[in-house]
Amino acid sequence: MKRMIFCILVLGISVCVFAQTSLPEHSFPSGSWTVSGNRAYQNNADARLARVNVRAPQSGAMEYEFNARYEGGIEDGHGGFGIHLFADSVHNTDAWGCGVSYLLWLNYDENPIDSRIPRGLSAQVYRSYSHSRMDLVESIDLNSYLDLLTDEVLSYPVPFKVWADGDTGEVRVFDPSDPDLEYYYFFFVNRGDLPLRGNWVALRTNGLKVSFAPGLE
Fold first, then answer.
1. How many CB atoms lie within 10 A of CB 142?
2. pLDDT tens across 197-209, in order?
3. Which has more confidence, 117 or 13?
4. Which of 39, 64, 100, 125 would be 162's cystine partner, CB 3.0–4.6 Å?
């Protein structure tokens, strides 16, 4: 059951996976993961590189849907989570990067070390070149949404929908505060990286307890 939930969680957000007839290769290289019902919990607030890897062939237009809920760990003023898309390989121990891939990251940091990362709530796009090297591509200030992060709101799952086209390089991240998920932020990856092809998806956390489940609710 644990294997099935994780495969649905990570691979079920990819439209190509429902056609598969057997459970794909997967691993839990870091962090402390448990499952309750249909939710997967990363329980270690001290884990900086917690990650779950699942094999998922990706090419062309892909859509990813999952929901995430805050479970704790922000008391020290720092925490984040995100998803690697189009990863060509993964590492089965702690790793900063995730092969050749793009990482979409949601971050809260009251005292960021990198001057390019806004203080408070923000989002980043990273280009991963290997398991040990990632470069910051773009950083977005999201502090206009900070007032929405009340204790009541944080107790509910937040829907995340991402659409990415590996051929054109367009990536759309839909606004989770929009109840209809019609509005989105978009960007294009470096054209020199096209076409994007990948065999893996990875969900990861940094200094944060988060639970994940498939679907938008």
1. 18
2. 999 999 999 999 9
3. 117
4. 64
Distance CA(170)–CA(62), nearest Å, equals: 11
Question: What SS3 class is residue 2?
Answer: helix
Judge whether residue 12 has pLDDT over 90.
Answer: no
Determine the Cα–Cα distance for residues 158 and 153; give it in Å rounded to an integer: 9
| 19: Cβ contacts below 8 Å, ≥ 6 apart | none
Q: Percent of the chain beyond pLDDT 90?
A: 69
Cβ-based neighbour number of residue 22 at 10 Å: 5
Cβ contact 92:116 at 8 Å: no
- Going from N- to C-terminal start, the domains of the chain cover 2-214
Question: What is the C-alpha separation between 75 and 53, in angstroms, rounded?
Answer: 27
Q: How many C-beta atoms lie closer than 10 Å to residue 210's C-beta? A: 26
Burial of 75 (0-12, 13-18, 19+ CB in 10 A): exposed
Contact between 67 and 53 under an 8 Å Cβ cutoff? The reply is: no
Model confidence pLDDT, tens digit, residues 100-142: 999 999 999 999 999 999 999 999 999 999 999 999 999 999 9
Q: Class of the 2-214 domain?
A: mainly beta
